[in-house]
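Record 1 of the preview.
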Amino acid sequence: MEKYIPTMKIRFIYCLLFFCLSLAIGTSCTTPDTINHLPSEDDSEIVLENYRLTENETWEPEKTYIVNSTLEIPQDITLNIPPGTTVKFGRDARITVRGILKIGTPLAQKQVAQLVHLTSHNVVPTPGDWKGIFFDHTHDLESFIRGAVIKYATIALDIKTTSPTVAECTLRLNGTAIALDGSDAHIHHNDILDNNIGISTIGRQTLPRIEKNSITKNETGIFCENVQSIIQHNNLNANVFALRLNVKFDLSIPNNWWGHTNIIEIMDTIIDGGDPGLISKQIGTVLYEPFADAQIADAGFPYPTLLTELKH
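->
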């Protein structure tokens, strides 16, 4: 009997060690229910993987949020991204808005003091790295983007049937900076440059207002299929084509600066029914007179000193 006791002790010790090891491994694993929860407040970098908000959230300024795949804002939920926040997006990541999204400085505040940066997470970023922010038929009147720098998206702001205000932002190096489909959005005092398309519009029954923006250095400044659009007091210079009309109705957009006071040179920057060699269907004419005779001084992003140290 005395010879058997040590053997039992050894077996007991082995079982105890196996139990402790199993417990340690089990507690270190992340269950599917917690995989996309926010880390602790002490972390300066927060990764969100297929994240769906379940309640209103306000992110923390001075932190970096990394979005992989889709971040969804459901109906009746609000996400507030305050000034000073950086959001980086993985390959093909996007924000889908079915609730309310508030980015940057509130509209009631007098001026922008800090920017929000929304950009690619790639080490060497290029246009189209992430999909953009998709407003998916939300019908809300509270969303806004003010004081943000948005870069390297396929469609930076893809706005369908809702009407957020987009003000005092810089949108650069995107496929399309802003796409308006059935939207009454107010787009004003933005720098929209170095994109393939600056702004595209579609939807005959809506009245988006595109005013006092600097829309420059794009392949196409404005691609227009909504001739009800109010497009005035913008700087539309230095684009390959300032405006392309793609609908059979005429478009009246007076009081913009086209980079020239020479009518022939202005017409060279516009694609409409007067360019049969460049179009494949019947389209209308752009009525651009009267036009500004000089660059509009107060159009575009009004805080250039905030752009001196852009983040990637």
